[in-house]
Amino acid sequence: MTFRNTGGRAATSGTVTFATHIIGALGVDWATIESTQPLPAPIPAGTAKTRTYTVCVDSWRVPLGMRVDTQKVTATWR
Fold first, then answer.
1. 3-class DSSP string for the chain
2. What is the pLDDT of residue 78?
3. Taking CA 29 as the corner, what is the angle to CA 26 and CA 35, rounded to the nearest 5 degrees?
4. Is 49 exposed, middle or buried (0-12, 13-18, 19+ CB in 10 A)?
5. Sheet strand arrangement including 29-38
6. Which of 6, 21, 44, 74 has the lowest CB atom count within 10 Å?
7. pLDDT single digits (tens) 17-74
8. 20: burial class by Cβ within 10 Å (0-12, 13-18, 19+)?
9. In 3D, which of 57, 52, 51 has the Cα closest to residue 69?
């Protein structure tokens, strides 16, 4: 993911929250699991940083025939 700071000050800390959905074989959304990771800070004003994240879900939450799909990502910084 690429985080771009378009503000006038450096982003010195923050978090990234992933909303990962557990999807059944017929497309039913059974659950949403949120996980949070640190933002790749500091991000100076007017620049961008790229970071790769691994989102994990306990295997018991995803029975055979189901899948995971991260549908929403939210970043907050200070």
1. CEEECCCCCCECCEEEEEEEEEECCCCCEEEEEEEEEECCCCECCCCEEECCCCCCCCHHHCCCCCEEEEEEEEEEEC
2. 83
3. 140
4. middle
5. 29-38, 14-23, 67-77
6. 6
7. 999 999 999 999 999 999 999 999 999 999 999 999 999 899 999 999 999 999 999 9
8. buried
9. 57
